[in-house]
Amino acid sequence: MDDRCDLELVEHQPRRLLREGLSPELGKRLWQQYGKQVDVEFPSPKTSNEWVLKAQGWVGHIPLERDFGIALRPKVPLGRLFEMLEVAYRLKGFRFLEGMVDCASVSAYYDRLATVLAKRTLDRGRKGYFRQYVGHWEHLPYICGRMDVASFAKAPWRVRMPCDYEDHTGDILDNQILAWTLSRLSRSSACSEDTLRVV
Burial level of 114, CB count in 10 A (0-12/13-18/19+)? Predict the structure, then answer.
């Protein structure tokens, strides 16, 4: 894909690097900007003149230079995170993940989540999206809902009647969030071709 070189750190496991493996400037930047995510020990007699880096429970990517970054990996396989969520939130299970392959990287995990969201949205569409009654007040050429008689009596020459009504619509916040997320995913370069087809 590109010439990017990433240093992988597994959660809570120290990674030792030779003094030449990381420049002092990059080490200082990592320590200052990402000290919460990565514990940085500078080369010293205590560390046998080596860098000691340890991920502090975060998962993701830290870009240090244009062609170099640090990939933070969890200590458990990414596919097991769903099982951990089931236990943590007392869920019955993620049955919609059956038949999917395990993920080996954060980008594969992202791709997997995008596929799951797209398939679940399609499934929800087959059953019908959530709808809600939304109140409206406007002047209409016909009576809809309840007519505001007092307002109409003040200006009887108006052809349009003031009405207070409720509309049963699918254009609600929950559905808008789904549409916005799928729209962003469709423009994402992080998704595979198969995932983009589903999205």
Answer: buried
* Chain centroid, CA 37 distance in Å: 19
Residue 49 one-letter amino acid: N
Q: Which residues pair with 140 in a beta bridge?
A: 161
> Per-residue pLDDT for the chain (199 aa), expressed as one digit of tens each?
344 567 889 988 999 999 998 999 999 999 999 999 999 999 999 999 999 999 998 877 788 887 788 888 888 766 666 556 555 555 554 443 333 344 556 677 778 788 888 888 888 888 888 888 888 888 888 888 788 888 777 877 777 888 888 888 888 888 899 899 999 888 877 788 888 888 8
42 half-sphere exposure, CB direction, 13 A CA radius: 11
The Cα 191–Cα 199 span in angstroms is 9
Query: Tokens 């919609």 — which residue?
Result: 96
Structure tokens at 55: 């991920």
User: In the numeric block, which tokens belong to residue 199?
Assistant: 């999205």
- Strand-pairing partners, residue 26, are none
CB contact burial 30-44 (16+ within 10 A = b; e otherwise): beeebeebbbbbbbe
Predicted TM-score (pTM) of the model is 0.45
Token representation of residue 72: 């933070």
